[in-house]
Amino acid sequence: MKLNRRTLAYKCSLWSSLTRHSPFTTHHRFSTYYDTLQVKPDATVDEIKKAFLEQSKKLHPDIDPSNPDLHKKFVRLNEAYSVLSKSDSRRQYDNRLRLRQAEPFRETSGAQRDRGSDLNSRPGHGFEDEQQRYWEQFHQPSASQQAAFHSTQRRSRNLKVFGYCIFIMLAGVFVHYIGFRKLEEAHSAFMDKKDRIIQEMYEEAKERARANGLKKQQEILRQKHAAFMAKYNPPKPGGDDK
CDD domains attached here (predicted)? Predict the structure, then answer.
């Protein structure tokens, strides 16, 4: 009886030891990108995309900005989708995953964490740079977010149109003012020139009238004097002609 109890205790201890050091246990094994997206390793691209959209709605940082762990999960979700959504990077990841699962059980938990971190590292594709692009491509905002976005865009367009109208109106006023000033200057110059011509013509006519008038007056005076002499000083009869 004591022997059976000892044998049972030994088996339980051995199983517990194997469970702690086994890389296939659920509690201690590293989390793969498939676990992050909650899909099977043989999932299709459409299934991966669908899972990414569902998880991104739950883990988006805007849900709780004060939760830094939510941001980390969201970043890892984007990394997982970046790797598994492309055939080349997914093939490399699956190969490294198979190599990792084929290692012996003698590895310690610290080494498992190191290798798990190395396995989940990016395979040289710059996924952090692509996170924003992937999110913008596949994120589906809510109706209220879409309405707010369109309202903001519409307000921005209206402000731009209003600014353009004000600019065109001010430009038109400025052009009309410049045109009016130029027309006024041209009209003033034309009137000044016309006044000068008229003044010159007047001065010339006045001078000509003054010169001609003096001769006319002298001629009239001579004629009047001759008539007066003929009337009041008749020639004496029998007078000698000189």
Answer: DnaJ
C-alpha 79/C-alpha 73 separation (Å) is 10
b/e per residue 16-43 (b: at least 16 CB within 10 A): eeeeebebeeeeebbebbbebbebeeeb
Q: Do 112 and 29 contact (CB within 8 A), yes or no?
A: yes
SS (H, E, C) 180-212: HHHHHHHHHHHHHHHHHHHHHHHHHHHHHHHHH
Residue type, 166: I
**For residue range 159-210, what is the model confidence (pLDDT) as tens digits?**
999 999 999 999 999 999 999 999 999 988 999 988 888 888 778 767 766 7
pLDDT above 50 for 102: yes
d(Cα 26, Cα 12) in Å, to the nearest integer?
19
First-to-last alpha carbon distance for the chain, in angstroms, is 203
- C-alpha span between 20 and 29 (Å, rounded): 10
Domains of the chain in start order, with CATH, are 30-85 (1.10.287.110)
Closest by Cα among 194, 175, 87, 79 to 130 = 79
Answer yes or no: are the C-beta atoms of 128 and 122 closer than 8 Å.
yes
pTM attached to this predicted model: 0.36
**Identity of residue 21:** H
φ, ψ for residue 56, nearest 5 deg: -65, -30
